[in-house]
Specification:
15 helices; Rossmann fold; alpha/beta; 36% helix; 6-stranded mixed β-sheet; 7-stranded antiparallel β-sheet
């Protein structure tokens, strides 16, 4: 299952955006302040159950500057979803979202509340009298396929309301640009290691054996003279301070004597030529990013193998952060080979040099407050032959062209770009074939 189309209306920097995306990996590119992060956040508003509902109730800065909320209007984010046919769990999840066979739709809308729409219809409330408090958010699925996502108006009821809990079976993982994966690796509640262990089917007999080992270790530690003396001193001090009404017995042990305690106590240990069995806190930020995503990928793969997923999606802002160019390449190649969808934003020419031209969503400023978007392979003038040529030329150096608003060709490198196509267009000579 993958997202094949994203429609955004009146959200932050986007007055109107409509892009079709293909393949399992999509690179959102463009200069700064064109809305790459807004694009990712819009998708999260629609489909990420882990995103707090606090963010779904929009603030004035979340509304496009051209919109006057005093008159009825809406923020709409629509996703079209495909490639779920044949997967039982995915079909069960999106069954009520289908607008036509093989295509499901999910819509986040921030629009006037039901009672406000009724008051507007009865003219008890007039346009120009609304405030932000008169709006609310809703998430709907499906709807009449004759009503295209880009044409839905604020007063239309399209599709049926979905249970927010249903989205929890669709796993979305979001990596922010300024991420602190070291902190997440330390916290069992946030660590992908804990998710991976929880998803691993551990036999009851093995659990019991591990628990016996822990209990015996706890017993030996607690009975050591020094540990016993420290525990006794803390116990006495606590009873004195707390008083009899709140008194509890204090002991020292290795960990909580339960299997869950074992899971929470497990730590990732690393070894290299310089150090043995060290924790990720002593590692560099870049390798910790790679470690984190590696564990997460294994967790995703296990869910697929066990058929415990109704879809999963990675949203990744700037995967190149803190990474050596070689690691950028290997990470992108890995993401590109996965059997689930990744949508990422990037400024890295090392990443874009490896991506297919059909994977790009290009955003650019066209003058305040407008943002233009394009999927490069949807441009009619770019033929399949042009696409192949461009993919060969766009190496880690020339990929800078993808991030430029304007390009000036000068003597030197310009010859590489100009001479081959000019000879081909004017003389019919293909230098690549005769070189």
């Amino acid at each position: 299952m993958r997202i094949s189309r994203v429609v955004i209306r009146n959200f932050r920097s986007f007055e109107a955006l409509d892009v079709a995306i293909s393949g399992n990996t999509t690179c959102v590119i463009g200069e700064n302040n064109t809305g790459k992060s807004n694009f990712i956040h819009a998708i999260r508003l629609c489909i990420d159950a882990n995103l707090s509902s606090t963010y779904r109730a929009l603030l004035p800065n979340d509304i496009h500057s051209a919109v006057d909320l005093s008159s009825p209007n809406q923020v709409l984010i629509g996703l079209e979803i495909v490639d779920f046919t044949g997967n039982v769990m995915e079909e069960a999840l999106v069954g009520s979202w289908q607008s036509k066979p093989g295509v499901a739709r999910l819509m986040y809308r921030f629009r006037p509340k039901t009672n406000v729409r009724e008051d507007l219809a009865s003219e008890e409330l007039s346009p120009g009298e609304l405030s932000l408090e008169d709006y609310h958010w809703e998430i709907n699925g499906g709807g009449d396929p004759a009503r295209d996502l880009s044409n839905i108006t604020w007063d239309e009821n399209v599709g049926s309301s979905i249970r927010f809990g249903d989205l929890q079976s669709f796993l979305v993982v979001f990596f922010s640009a300024l991420r602190d994966v070291e902190s997440d690796l330390r916290q069992s509640r946030l660590s992908p290691l804990n998710r991976l262990i929880s998803a691993t089917e551990i036999a009851a007999a093995e659990r019991e054996k591990l628990l016996e080992v822990l209990q015996e270790s706890n017993k030996q530690i607690a009975e050591s003279p020094t540990t016993e003396a420290i525990a006794k001193s803390v116990d006495n001090s606590f009873k004195q301070v707390a008083g009899p009404a709140f008194s509890m017995d204090v002991d020292l042990g290795l960990a909580e004597p339960s299997f869950e305690g074992i899971v929470r106590s497990l730590r990732i240990l690393l070894t290299n030529n310089a150090m043995q069995k060290f924790e990720p806190s002593q590692n560099g930020l870049g390798l910790n990013n790679i470690l984190y995503i590696s564990i997460l990928i294994e967790y995703f793969q296990k869910r697929l193998t066990q058929q415990k997923t109704a879809g999963q999606l990675i949203l990744f802002e700037e995967p190149e952060a803190h990474l050596h160019p070689q690691l950028q390449l290997t990470l992108f190649k890995t993401l590109n080979s996965l059997p689930f969808q990744t949508i990422l934003t990037t400024h890295s020419t090392h990443v874009t040099s490896q991506a297919g031209l059909n994977s790009f969503v290009l955003l650019t400023q066209v003058g305040s407050p407008g943002i233009a978007s394009a999927v490069l392979t949807n441009v009619p003038s770019i033929t399949k032959e042009n696409e192949s040529d461009l993919e060969r030329y766009l190496d880690a150096t020339k990929s800078n062209l993808l991030f430029a608003r304007k390009v000036m060709l000068v003597e030197g490198p310009a010859e590489v770009f100009l001479i081959p196509p000019l000879l081909k267009a004017v003389k019919g000579i293909d230098l690549e074939k005769i070189a």
